[in-house]
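Recall the central idea of this unit: under ordinary conditions, the amino acid sequence of a chain determines the structure it adopts. In this exercise we apply that idea directly, starting from the sequence alone.
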Amino acid sequence: MDLHQLKTFYYVANLLNFSKAAEKVSLSQPAVSRQIESLEKYFGLDLFYRIGKKIELTDAGRRLLQYTEQILSVAEQTEKAMNSLKNLDEGEIVIGAGTTVGNYVLSPLILEFNKRYPNIETKLVIEKTSAIIEKIKDGSIDTAIIAKSLNHPEFFYQPIFRDELIPLAPNNYYQNEEVTIENLSNEVFLLREQGSNTRERIDQLMEKHHFKPKKIIELSTNEAIKHSILKGYGIGFLSKFTVQLEIDHKLLFPVKLKEECTREFSTISQKGKYSSPIMLIFNSFLKKNIHSYTK
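Accordingly, the structure predicted from this sequence is:
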């Protein structure tokens, strides 16, 4: 048994097709068949049921696939680790973030990082917080900045900055007085969709105060909420980072809410995962510069 055989088995097991797997590993179909037969002989177990031209995994095949995925992941991390030691300021990192911090905080910070370290290729993945957490779990991103409070023992967390979610109105009707959330009971709330940490925090605020607005309209982006507020469709809750320009130009008006709604952003990564020199460089840059982008 060797790594090449396991890689071939991985593709056959996922595609359930010898010809397609052969294309993935750049081998002939007979060569792929020989590698699978070699594995079956090595373990003394059938890994596939062969039904005419169709194949299916046996119980042994399914179990081997689970271990193969782990082995190939470790092999990929090992290769990255060894390559990173050749050139300490060259390579690639993938960073994940929710939409708010990704678009309004990390994007300009990463552009500055790329200016400082032009040989490091940096990819920023921006999705809902729930999707980013899944990508951390499956190893497709190296680290992420999220606001969600988690207690998963497999993750390492490092708090880096705080954020405030504020209600915004299309006019200054509430501008001169502090109001409670109950004072907004006749308003339409424009909120992010489920799965967004922004939405989760506002839901927690409403639940804490046993509050229900007149109506909730879900919108999938911060920009959609901004435009809807501007058009007078309701009051929206957004991070202060996303609306400072509109507030400064008196396009949107913050509502002075008595009940604060804050959250803490942290870096999150898998425990036990190798931290390359490139990741250490990025984390150091992040800690030194993040507050310049969160004022």
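The chain has a mean pLDDT of 89.
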